[in-house]
Specification:
mainly alpha
Length: 187
């Protein structure tokens, strides 16, 4: 019969195998996007019209950067909470981690009922239909969760995972919206 340490090691190893490439891909996508944005700004420098476009672009870029930073902080905190719950060694540690998870989930819940603070309604509407339905369902499910009633680590991990999925969707939609704005501005 496998030991608790063996199971914990296996769970953490599997989590790293799954989350590592996803995080790497997200970082590369952001870096490529930023490089693309900088190249566009350099191309347009020089004319008055280009200056206007540059200012408009900067406005969208600042909004995007602000959103990305906030979502990345949420995602980092979510991963940290999940890891702490998974590797907790005793009931006292588990309960402490659950309380921390409750606070984090409440913070996230205060923002998720209003995704328009991160992305606009037209940006949500521009999502592919299946993705939009899934996103709205995830938001609804997350906002209906009662964190005070959660007792098991599994419930907390599921809530954290759902909030992470919503955050990644918001990142993607925000990136797509910025790409669309870039096309509108520079074409």
């Amino acid at each position: 019969m496998p030991t608790f340490e063996y199971n914990l090691y296996y769970v953490l190893l599997e989590a790293i195998k799954i989350l590592g490439p996803a995080a790497g891909a997200a970082i590369v996508a952001i870096m490529v996007s930023r490089y693309h944005l900088k190249t566009k700004v350099i191309e347009l420098a020089g004319t008055e019209r280009a200056k206007g476009k540059e200012l408009l672009f900067e406005m969208y870029k600042e909004r995007y950067d602000r959103n990305i930073k906030g979502l990345q902080e949420f995602i980092t905190a979510i991963y940290s909470c999940q890891a702490k719950i998974i590797i907790a060694k005793n009931e006292e540690e588990i309960n402490d981690d659950k309380e921390g998870a409750k606070l984090l989930l409440k913070d996230i819940k205060s923002i998720f009922p209003h995704p328009e603070t991160i992305i606009s309604e037209p940006e949500i509407e521009s999502m592919p239909e299946k993705e939009k339905i899934c996103f709205i369902d995830q938001l609804k499910k997350f906002n209906e969760m009662e964190f005070e009633d959660m007792k098991t680590s599994k419930e907390f991990l599921e809530a954290l995972d759902l909030s992470k999925n919503i955050s990644f969707t918001l990142l993607k939609v925000s990136q797509d919206a910025l790409d669309t704005k870039i096309k509108e501005i520079f074409s």
